Amino acid sequence: MLTGLVVALIVLGAIYGYVAIRPVPPIDADFGPDKQSFSVPMPADEVFKVVEGLPVSAAKYKLGRADATKRRVILHDGMGMKSYGNFYPIDVTPTASGSDVTVGIKSKYPLQFGPFVRKQRDAQLAAIVSDVKAKLAGTI
């Protein structure tokens, strides 16, 4: 019994160490298909500045990388009780009527699968999309 507990703690420590030291991917990295998009009636440069400033007002996200020429911001969060942490790429694309904002999600720990993980990831994606929309709505 005690041996199993020690092994479990060592494995969790190794996972935590991997997640804690994992660097933010390059700005051009592909984060996979898990994305949500929405449109806003604001110029793309203004939307980019608001999204880049999101971590200042919402302490649960940290700014990983930002590139104004590509209009991409990568936010990330830390490991918690329900998640190993995620990267959130946010792309801003100019349109004729304003801008399209695409928010993605990618786990920091690559070995996650199954319906419970999918449900949690969808909930976290919906939460950051809601935070971004709320921040953009406050600036209109």
Order of helices and strands: HEHHEEEEEH
Our measurement of the CA-to-CA distance between the termini, rounded to an integer number of angstroms, reads 58 Å
Any idea what the radius of gyration is? 17 Å
Our count of helices gives 4
Overall, the morphology is elongated
Overall number of strands: 6
- What is the percent of helical residues? 40-55%
Instruction: Describe the main β-sheet briefly.
Output: 6 strands, antiparallel
Write the layout of secondary structure elements.
Elements: H1 2-21, E1 35-40, H2 44-52, H3 54-57, E2 62-67, E3 72-76, E4 86-95, E5 98-104, E6 106-107, H4 115-137
Antiparallel strand pairs: 1-5, 2-3, 3-4, 4-5, 4-6
Task: Write out key terms for the chains shown.
single chain
Structure description:
- The protein has about 140 residues and is an alpha+beta fold.
- Strands 1, 2, 3, 4, 5 and 6 form a 6-stranded antiparallel beta sheet that branches.
- The longest helix is centred in the C-terminal third of the chain and has 23 residues.
- The chain starts with a helix and ends with a helix.
- The relative contact order is 0.19.
